[in-house]
Amino acid sequence: MPDVAASLPADFPTRHAVVDTPQGRQARTALYFVAPAVLLMLLILITPVIIASVLSFSSYSLGSPGFEWIGAENYERMFTRSTYQKMLTATLTYVLVVVPMSVILGLGAAMMINSLRRGRDIYKTIYFLPVMAALLATAIVWEFTLHPTIGLVNKTLADGCEVGWLYVLLSGSWLGGDPAASWFGHGCADGFPLWLGNRNYAIWTICFIGIWQAFGFNMVLYLAGLTSVPRELYHAAEMDGAKSAWERFRLVTWPMLGPTTVFVVTITTIRSFQVFDTVEALTQGGPSKSTYVMMYAIFEKAIRQNLIGMGAAITVVFLFFVMVLTLVQRHLVERRVHYS
Amino acid sequence: MIGRSSPFFEAAKHAVLVIGALIVILPFYVMLSYSLKSPQEIETNTGGFIGAQAPMVNEYCVKLGNTREDCTETPVVFNYTQAFKQAPLLRYLLNGVIVTVSIFLIQVVVALPCAYALAKLKFWGRDAVFTMVLFCLLIPVHAIALPLYIMLAKVGLTNTYAALVIPWTISVFGIFLMRQFFMTVPDDLIDAGRMDGMSEFAIVWRVMLPTAIPALLAFAIFSVVAHWNDYFWPRVVITGNRDLFTPPLGLREFRGGADGSDWGPMMATATIIVTPLIVAFLMAQRRFIEGITLSGMK
Amino acid sequence: MAQLLISDIQKSFGETPVLKGVSLDIADGEFVSLVGPSGCGKSTLLRIIAGLEVQDAGSIWIDGTNVNGMRASQRNLSMVFQSYALYPHLTVAENIAVPLRMRELNSWQRFPLVGPFVPGTRPVLKDINSAVLEAAATLDITHLLERKPGQLSGGQRQRVAVGRALVRHPKAFLLDEPLSNLDAKLRVHMRTEIAQLHRRLAATFVYVTHDQAEAMTMSDRIAVLMDGELLQVGTPDEIYNRPVDIRVAEFIGSPKINILPAGCDANGRVTLFGKATTLGAKGTDKVAHLGVRPEAFVITNGDGDLSGTVTHSENLGSELFIQLSVADVDHPVIVRAEASLAPKIRRGSPLSVAVDHGRALAFDAKGKAVAVDDRDIWQKAVNA
Predict the structure, then answer these.
(1) Topology given in CATH for the domain delimited by B89-297
(2) For C102, which of A242, A255, A256 is closest by C-beta distance?
(3) Structural domain boundaries of chain A?
(4) What ipTM score was computed for the predicted complex, to two decimals?
(5) Interface membership of A229 toward C (CB under 8 Å)
(6) Using 50, 70 and 90 to split pLDDT, how confident is the model at C378?
(7) Count H helices, E strands: chain B?
């Protein structure tokens, strides 16, 4: 066997010959590159999930030295006490109203704007403005606009009481009913509702603001989806006998927008679960806990009232909802990817 | 073109869209208009869009001991100066900029090398790291606000810039986005860099970064908008130190003690907070919309 | 099956006129190809027939009925699109069933999940099902019925598109360059299949293509469209051997016909490169060009109608195409020869060829065909 080592120059580096390959160096560098991200992921994302899960089984409070295990008591409370039932009701109401409405409005606006000959960009810009503006700011402005006495909405409605034909129109008396008994009639007589102060109206008002803020985003996503539908499919549909716009929608538009819809619904749902700004600024969870959504509950219970255990339990339930939703979305998208 | 494009249908569509646009724009109208009006005009809902701008008397100024003449000014001046006087709004705006920019820069520094390694380098544990990224995509930061708050409280970091910035430094979405983008960069480009003697580190910043500018821009827009407008996290983590308020917190503080004469200045504050992003949006609409939607279509 | 009458169709897109008054008569059961270079308006014409575009002027008659203003879905025609336009989210069977479902079932019956329970739906669904199976059997795609278009090859997708078109037994079939997305070998194979399908269905086919070989091999008649005008309509034989316009002669035939500068002497005798030929113009038109197809040349030893230098040769195995550079002619002259001659043809060597005067095509300065015949008298005079 030829003695390779002996024929090498004396200072040839032999010790690192194995590890110091380009691949080896790349691998080491790669580890340095991912280290900060991995560290942060563990510290900022994964550890808190574990902490929340652990704390949810305790009655911990910040500042107090003790730590008591109380088992599943927090969860029990969540599903039995009326406060938490209202929390779940408020959250689910909000999600189940805002998601469908903002998706439908987003789709409707996208389809209408897409079929216009002129003016598309103006409408696109206007409808997208709420997405760009800080929700807290616009929520406060909505609160002001919906103020029972000096707000623009109620003032305009009150002015409408004076205008004869408008009164007839809005009170429905032209349909043959007692105008004073209608909603509008009541409002004229007793004053229009406290949109945010009345237990029966508050949650719907919060939903309205949520829809107002969200549908522009969905519209933009649907617009992108609509432009990617191949035009020839509409021609094929026409040749196949699809006569009306509804039939074209069912045969071509809706199926081709499938992936977009999955995405839009998921994102809107997750964001709806996270609603906080409007509630904290406008209703503080009331009146009578009718707008007591989960994020606000966590804030009130854990941050303000220092009931960390309970707050952690709500956090865990919340995370569960969100994770399940995202996994469902991923599954649906992967399944559909196999047909393009 | 298939389908009716008759003038009637066009007009009907425009009618519906215009009504929608009016509802959408209503708060912006109110916000801007009332930031220009006097308290009397606000209470009585008069004065058209920009208000009559009749000189009014600034009650605060009178209380401070000045004469009524010295304290007379037009409503728009009153509202906007009060906005800056009653609370350190400039400071809050500055905080907003500091926080937003810091977050974005750190996000890039953390995400870019990681994305590059995941996309182009071979190393033991690559799949594990990517799986971790996919898992962490399931965890919205707002959802874990509580444990994060506790962790920060325990190390005494509440009420600091660090608290405002740290939880956002890891943008899993950013890593995912940049990785997808980097995977489309030809390997040859990177090998050429290596042949030229560049270290991997140099490759990330000299080769990958320039090619990724469009994706980075989209990510920047997404990040800046999200964090400038964020109210929840600062509300949780800034509990006492007013100096650290971000713009939304500043507005909320204003709102806390709303009485008659403060609606005007409050609307002015809201306008000031909302304007930077709106103006940027109006100037670069396409980029903004691309950025926000790119975040979606992953 | 139906007769189609296209009467003086005009169409412009903005300022640009695309169709300048096209009229065409298509008999019941005929296979007519619309050929022409890209952008000549043939696809537009097809879409006007289908009803997907509206013409600016002129009428379309289907089986004696004027269909102007009638929507495409009501004209009872079927179209096979260049991109196939299959619904990606439906299986092959469902794709083929769509035209039947649209026409036979109303909205309630088509409702997902609940539809089949509407009274009267079941028997219709059965009929639809058997029609789909029949169409699939005709095209040999029965084994693909449960797949989605994304899982099929180009040729298979094309057959599904044809299946969707024929399942309804429409009055006529419109095909818009259906083979252009397929690779060369598959295209040749599909040409036969489509021709056989036409014979089997005995249906009216209107076929648009820019590939003259497809038109030549499949059609009963060819309509040559250029710059929005119909230059000639005739059988493949007529188009090939008796083109009425020099543009038709140049478009049809591969390799392209050679256009040689020609002239006419006082007696009407055609001259080529100054030398007299045995051809004489029949009427008073003056011949300016002579079109000679590559196969209409005969290689001579020295004395021929023209001579030049070999610049290139293509040996296809079955035949040889030689390119000659000839004085006073801009483009290389292409001559077809037997493949066995390949070793004897060297680049740079001179070659002399004679024109088979019987197969030469004469055109005047404006490009119109000039009738010529081979005058024996002159031949004898030359020989004498």
Answers:
(1) MetI-like fold (1.10.3720)
(2) A242
(3) 2-55, 73-148+193-334
(4) 0.85
(5) no
(6) low
(7) 17, 2
